[in-house]
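sry for the spam today, last one i promise. C-alpha coordinates for design, 213 residues
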Protein backbone atom coordinates (compact mmCIF):
# COMPACT_ATOMS: atom_id res chain seq x y z
CA UNK A 1 0.00 0.00 0.00
CA UNK A 2 1.18 3.54 -0.74
CA UNK A 3 0.27 6.76 1.05
CA UNK A 4 -0.19 10.00 -0.89
CA UNK A 5 1.73 13.10 0.25
CA UNK A 6 1.25 16.58 -1.21
CA UNK A 7 3.31 19.76 -0.76
CA UNK A 8 0.16 21.63 0.26
CA UNK A 9 -0.58 19.21 3.08
CA UNK A 10 2.98 18.76 4.36
CA UNK A 11 4.36 22.24 3.79
CA UNK A 12 7.53 23.18 1.93
CA UNK A 13 10.04 22.14 4.62
CA UNK A 14 8.74 18.64 5.36
CA UNK A 15 8.13 17.94 1.66
CA UNK A 16 11.69 19.04 0.86
CA UNK A 17 13.00 16.48 3.35
CA UNK A 18 10.73 13.84 1.84
CA UNK A 19 11.90 14.71 -1.68
CA UNK A 20 15.60 14.52 -0.82
CA UNK A 21 15.01 11.16 0.86
CA UNK A 22 13.64 9.58 -2.32
CA UNK A 23 15.66 11.35 -5.04
CA UNK A 24 18.80 9.39 -4.19
CA UNK A 25 21.70 9.12 -4.59
CA UNK A 26 22.55 12.66 -5.67
CA UNK A 27 26.00 13.61 -7.01
CA UNK A 28 27.67 16.54 -5.30
CA UNK A 29 28.91 19.69 -7.00
CA UNK A 30 31.75 21.02 -4.86
CA UNK A 31 31.50 24.56 -6.17
CA UNK A 32 34.40 27.00 -6.00
CA UNK A 33 33.69 30.69 -6.64
CA UNK A 34 35.41 34.00 -6.02
CA UNK A 35 33.61 37.11 -4.84
CA UNK A 36 33.96 40.49 -6.51
CA UNK A 37 36.14 41.41 -3.50
CA UNK A 38 38.50 38.49 -4.19
CA UNK A 39 37.38 36.09 -1.42
CA UNK A 40 37.47 32.41 -2.43
CA UNK A 41 34.37 30.40 -1.53
CA UNK A 42 33.82 26.65 -1.59
CA UNK A 43 30.53 24.86 -0.90
CA UNK A 44 28.84 21.51 -1.64
CA UNK A 45 25.59 21.47 -3.61
CA UNK A 46 23.72 18.17 -3.97
CA UNK A 47 21.33 19.24 -6.74
CA UNK A 48 23.81 18.74 -9.57
CA UNK A 49 23.93 17.18 -13.02
CA UNK A 50 25.00 17.53 -16.66
CA UNK A 51 22.57 19.79 -18.52
CA UNK A 52 23.86 19.83 -22.13
CA UNK A 53 26.19 17.79 -24.33
CA UNK A 54 27.15 20.27 -27.06
CA UNK A 55 28.20 22.72 -25.85
CA UNK A 56 29.08 20.91 -22.63
CA UNK A 57 27.17 22.32 -19.66
CA UNK A 58 26.61 21.39 -16.04
CA UNK A 59 24.18 22.78 -13.52
CA UNK A 60 23.76 23.09 -9.78
CA UNK A 61 20.91 24.49 -7.74
CA UNK A 62 21.29 27.06 -5.00
CA UNK A 63 18.49 26.79 -2.45
CA UNK A 64 18.17 30.38 -1.27
CA UNK A 65 20.64 33.19 -1.96
CA UNK A 66 23.92 31.62 -0.86
CA UNK A 67 27.50 32.85 -1.35
CA UNK A 68 28.03 30.58 -4.37
CA UNK A 69 25.08 32.10 -6.19
CA UNK A 70 26.00 35.66 -5.31
CA UNK A 71 29.60 35.18 -6.47
CA UNK A 72 28.58 33.54 -9.75
CA UNK A 73 26.12 36.36 -10.38
CA UNK A 74 28.90 38.91 -9.84
CA UNK A 75 31.77 37.23 -11.68
CA UNK A 76 29.97 34.81 -14.05
CA UNK A 77 32.48 32.01 -13.36
CA UNK A 78 32.70 28.93 -11.14
CA UNK A 79 34.48 25.59 -10.82
CA UNK A 80 32.89 22.24 -9.98
CA UNK A 81 35.35 19.95 -8.19
CA UNK A 82 34.74 16.26 -7.68
CA UNK A 83 33.68 15.44 -4.13
CA UNK A 84 35.66 12.30 -3.40
CA UNK A 85 35.51 9.90 -0.47
CA UNK A 86 38.99 10.73 0.93
CA UNK A 87 37.78 14.30 1.59
CA UNK A 88 34.44 13.35 3.16
CA UNK A 89 34.75 15.34 6.38
CA UNK A 90 36.25 18.41 4.71
CA UNK A 91 33.53 18.46 2.05
CA UNK A 92 30.92 18.42 4.80
CA UNK A 93 32.82 21.15 6.67
CA UNK A 94 32.67 23.47 3.65
CA UNK A 95 28.89 23.40 4.06
CA UNK A 96 29.27 25.39 7.30
CA UNK A 97 27.70 28.85 7.11
CA UNK A 98 30.95 30.80 7.25
CA UNK A 99 30.61 34.59 6.85
CA UNK A 100 31.08 35.72 3.26
CA UNK A 101 34.45 37.36 4.05
CA UNK A 102 35.96 34.04 5.26
CA UNK A 103 37.34 31.54 2.76
CA UNK A 104 36.45 27.89 3.25
CA UNK A 105 39.75 26.88 1.62
CA UNK A 106 41.77 28.28 4.52
CA UNK A 107 39.25 27.42 7.22
CA UNK A 108 39.02 23.75 6.23
CA UNK A 109 42.67 23.29 5.27
CA UNK A 110 42.34 22.79 1.52
CA UNK A 111 44.77 23.92 -1.16
CA UNK A 112 43.52 26.52 -3.63
CA UNK A 113 45.30 26.14 -6.96
CA UNK A 114 44.90 28.46 -9.97
CA UNK A 115 42.46 27.36 -12.65
CA UNK A 116 43.43 27.33 -16.32
CA UNK A 117 40.53 29.20 -17.94
CA UNK A 118 38.60 30.96 -15.16
CA UNK A 119 39.38 33.09 -12.09
CA UNK A 120 37.97 30.90 -9.25
CA UNK A 121 40.46 28.43 -7.81
CA UNK A 122 40.36 24.67 -8.03
CA UNK A 123 40.65 22.30 -5.07
CA UNK A 124 44.12 20.83 -5.53
CA UNK A 125 43.17 17.72 -3.53
CA UNK A 126 40.27 16.91 -5.87
CA UNK A 127 41.04 14.74 -8.93
CA UNK A 128 38.60 16.57 -11.22
CA UNK A 129 37.80 20.24 -11.77
CA UNK A 130 35.27 21.47 -14.32
CA UNK A 131 35.93 25.13 -15.04
CA UNK A 132 32.75 26.92 -16.06
CA UNK A 133 31.46 30.25 -17.29
CA UNK A 134 27.89 31.20 -16.52
CA UNK A 135 25.40 30.43 -19.26
CA UNK A 136 22.19 31.24 -17.39
CA UNK A 137 20.62 31.38 -13.95
CA UNK A 138 16.97 30.35 -13.74
CA UNK A 139 14.97 31.37 -10.69
CA UNK A 140 12.43 28.77 -9.57
CA UNK A 141 10.56 29.68 -6.41
CA UNK A 142 13.09 29.94 -3.57
CA UNK A 143 15.86 28.32 -5.64
CA UNK A 144 18.09 29.20 -8.57
CA UNK A 145 19.36 26.74 -11.17
CA UNK A 146 22.86 27.83 -12.23
CA UNK A 147 23.92 26.51 -15.64
CA UNK A 148 27.56 26.81 -16.63
CA UNK A 149 29.35 26.07 -19.89
CA UNK A 150 32.39 23.89 -19.22
CA UNK A 151 35.41 25.55 -20.81
CA UNK A 152 38.10 23.31 -19.31
CA UNK A 153 38.26 19.96 -17.51
CA UNK A 154 41.36 19.40 -15.37
CA UNK A 155 41.59 15.69 -14.52
CA UNK A 156 44.26 13.77 -12.63
CA UNK A 157 46.11 11.40 -14.99
CA UNK A 158 46.02 8.67 -12.33
CA UNK A 159 42.25 8.21 -12.56
CA UNK A 160 42.27 7.20 -16.25
CA UNK A 161 42.09 3.58 -17.38
CA UNK A 162 41.62 1.95 -20.78
CA UNK A 163 38.80 -0.59 -21.07
CA UNK A 164 38.43 -3.64 -23.31
CA UNK A 165 36.96 -1.48 -26.08
CA UNK A 166 39.99 0.81 -26.13
CA UNK A 167 38.21 3.71 -24.43
CA UNK A 168 40.46 5.69 -22.10
CA UNK A 169 38.28 7.44 -19.55
CA UNK A 170 38.25 8.23 -15.82
CA UNK A 171 37.57 5.09 -13.77
CA UNK A 172 34.78 5.63 -11.28
CA UNK A 173 36.55 3.37 -8.77
CA UNK A 174 39.58 5.65 -8.79
CA UNK A 175 37.40 8.75 -8.56
CA UNK A 176 35.61 7.32 -5.49
CA UNK A 177 32.76 9.86 -5.65
CA UNK A 178 30.52 10.62 -2.71
CA UNK A 179 26.76 11.10 -3.00
CA UNK A 180 24.09 12.65 -0.81
CA UNK A 181 21.08 10.76 0.47
CA UNK A 182 18.31 11.86 2.84
CA UNK A 183 18.67 13.24 6.36
CA UNK A 184 22.40 13.61 7.17
CA UNK A 185 23.21 10.49 5.19
CA UNK A 186 25.90 10.19 2.52
CA UNK A 187 27.02 7.21 0.45
CA UNK A 188 30.19 5.93 -1.15
CA UNK A 189 30.54 3.94 -4.34
CA UNK A 190 29.01 0.47 -3.96
CA UNK A 191 28.59 -2.46 -6.32
CA UNK A 192 29.01 -1.55 -9.98
CA UNK A 193 26.75 -3.24 -12.53
CA UNK A 194 27.20 -3.14 -16.30
CA UNK A 195 24.60 -3.66 -19.01
CA UNK A 196 24.46 -2.62 -22.67
CA UNK A 197 21.53 -0.81 -24.28
CA UNK A 198 19.48 -3.03 -26.62
CA UNK A 199 19.08 -1.81 -30.23
CA UNK A 200 15.51 -2.15 -31.47
CA UNK A 201 16.65 -4.52 -34.23
CA UNK A 202 17.79 -6.91 -31.48
CA UNK A 203 14.77 -6.43 -29.20
CA UNK A 204 14.13 -9.83 -27.52
CA UNK A 205 10.46 -9.17 -26.72
CA UNK A 206 10.38 -11.23 -23.56
CA UNK A 207 10.07 -8.35 -21.09
CA UNK A 208 6.34 -7.93 -21.73
CA UNK A 209 5.79 -11.33 -20.13
CA UNK A 210 8.19 -10.73 -17.25
CA UNK A 211 6.04 -10.72 -14.10
CA UNK A 212 9.06 -10.05 -11.87
CA UNK A 213 9.92 -6.70 -13.47
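last one done:
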Amino acid sequence: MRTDHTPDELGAGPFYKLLTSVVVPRPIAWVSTRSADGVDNLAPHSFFTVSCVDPPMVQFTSVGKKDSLRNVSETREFVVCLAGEPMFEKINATGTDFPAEISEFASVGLTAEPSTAVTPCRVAESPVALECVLHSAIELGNSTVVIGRVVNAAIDDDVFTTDAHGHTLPDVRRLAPLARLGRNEWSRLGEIMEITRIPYRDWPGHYANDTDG
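The two ends are 18 Å apart (CA to CA). ok im logging off now
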